[in-house]
Design a protein that fits this description.
Blueprint (H helix, E strand, L loop, with lengths): L2 H5 L7 H8 L1 H4 L4 E3 L5 E6 L4 E5 H10 L6 E5 H22 L5 E6 L6 H11 L5 E4 L2 H10 L6 E4 L5 H11 L4 E6 L4 H12 L4 E5 L24 H13 L6 E5 L9 H20 L6 E3 L23 H16 L8 E4 L3 H4 L3 E11 L16 H11 L6 H20 L5 H21 L13 H4 L2 E5 L3 H4 L1 H6 L5 E3 L9 E6 L8 E2 L2 E3 L2 E3 L2 E3 L9 E4 L6 H4 L10 E7 L5 E7 L4 H7 L4 H17 L5 H16 L7
Parallel strand pairs: 4-22, 5-6, 5-12, 6-7, 7-8, 8-9, 9-10, 10-11, 11-12, 14-16
Antiparallel strand pairs: 1-2, 2-3, 4-13, 13-14, 13-21, 15-21, 16-17, 16-20, 18-19, 22-23
Amino acid sequence: MNRISHQNHDVEWNAARATDLYGIEYWGAGHFQVSADGLVQVTADTGGGRGTINLLDIVDGLSERGLPMPVLLRIENLLDAQIAQINESFARAIAQSGYRGRYRGVFPIKVNQQSQIIEEVASFGARFGHGLEAGSKAELLIALATLDAMNGYIVCNGYKDEEFINLGLMAQKLGYRIFFVVETPAELPLLIQCSKAAGIRPRIGARVKLSSRVSGHWNATSGDRSIFGLTSMQLIDLVDTLKAHAMLDCMEMLHVHLGSQIPNIRDIRTGVMEACRYYVDLVREGAPLGNLDLGGGLAVDYEGSRSSHTHSMNYSMEEYCLDIIEVVMSILDPHDIPHPTIVTESGRALVAYGSVLLFNILDVTRFEAHALPEQVPESEHENVHNLWEVLKSITFERAQECYNDALFYRDEIRDLFRRGQISLRSRALAENVTLEILQRIKSVIIGNEDEYPELAGLEEALADIYYGNFSVFQSLPDIWAIDQVFPIMPIHRLDELPTRQAILADITCDCDGKIDRFAWDGTLNNTLPVHPLIEGKEYYLGAFLVGAYQETLGDLHNLLGDTHVVSVRINADGSFDYVKEVEGDSVADVLSYVEYHPQTLLQKFRNSAEQGVRAGHISATERQQLVELYATGLRGYTYFER
């Protein structure tokens, strides 16, 4: 942890060093960088070149428009760039390998159901024939209303009732290319029944469970114990049932789910290989197939370590595409089986980059001693005097001994306080002296921490707490729920040396509302390098790559609602347009979500205030002021407002 404080004080700090420290060059994927004057920039294709903007300029513009922090920023160009990248990468791999099939991407709506996202995927993705994946009735309705009937696949996963199936079948008549993926044996009889009743032959896909189990956080979605998918025996039963109903020709897709956020490319190759073996034998059984859906799995390097760590990836998108094509060809070509259309359901790799949570820091708690007295009063307890002697004897050679003694005497004093044998003032003095001891020990071992392995946690124990104007549970729920790591860093002042180490706390009254795992300097750390706060000036941080899942999974902990959402589009000349602004939830909004009626609440409070006038507690004028304050509170933003 001390590599910031001891290695960089004696060198000139600049944007290049900030880039290295926060790893933005690696997790930023070419979209984000640090300018020479210490600002985080976004660079994106604009259709007429590449444009670069500063995130701080966006923040300033939002302030002028009356939209305070926190804000979820969507950058439309980055979503477009990721859609283009995966389609063009597959196109290059197909051309390079001589593959005789095509690629069709489908975006899983569940990854981000927000209308702005889905509409942009459908609009920009139309040039590539990029489709949508629907896992529920509601998502199918979104897909049918958003996607052009003649452009892109709609892959239907999940449980499908009669209404779901009939809607999809009728949509086929409009030209929609809809695939009904059978995930459990119980689905097939209903699909056959509905299709015969409608006189429409469906496009059927079969999802098979792969025995290949991937690494990473979500490996439970793969392997024999995955929730959805047919076993090999169930797959044979499906083939036989379709044959019995003269519908085997309807089986046009084999679907597998390799996994989610797969960090290791070898796992992807292994899964594709097994999927292709199923494909070969299904063709031998007489199924026409023609489409191989490999599901999700394409990772995002949240950590920026370019490794097989859970939150990273050891491959590029180009390698991912080329490896899939090569494996499919290596398995199918010896059997003279035509190359299928490759379908992938990449979600997070498309939308993660396009969203950034911007927030300001409201306050800080520092674990530093207050002003110490020149001498401990003679009347103080013996252990307080012992602590004072430890403070006076700190040297590098005695660092471990002084650390042990300080904690021993501090704990003894705490025990005395619990038994009522020393006063609050004495305990406060002892705690203050202990903090000073720990800070001095930290300073004397800087650069030589390896010699004191038992003091490895000292930096973390003394780290600041920076209070951010956001809710982990609303805007970054995966941090709390599954220990997800997102890149977090200051968006300005990066030409200054970050001299503080901190964890982040949100503004909920919950001890879990904190962030204490950060990716920087190529590894995971329990604190984040930050700058000292400056009185009267805002300090802004950004949580990056948050476009996948976070917006929909958020909850109303402490009734902190949706943040403001702003979409921008970058222009080639370095300007940007505010495309859309959606104001965050007001207090009245979130109260209505939990079954309160704001006007009823206001009326009840007005009546209570009137009773206060009658009782002589407040005047009629004060009543009006109080009621107006209550009404203003209902209209206000749920987050902290300066």
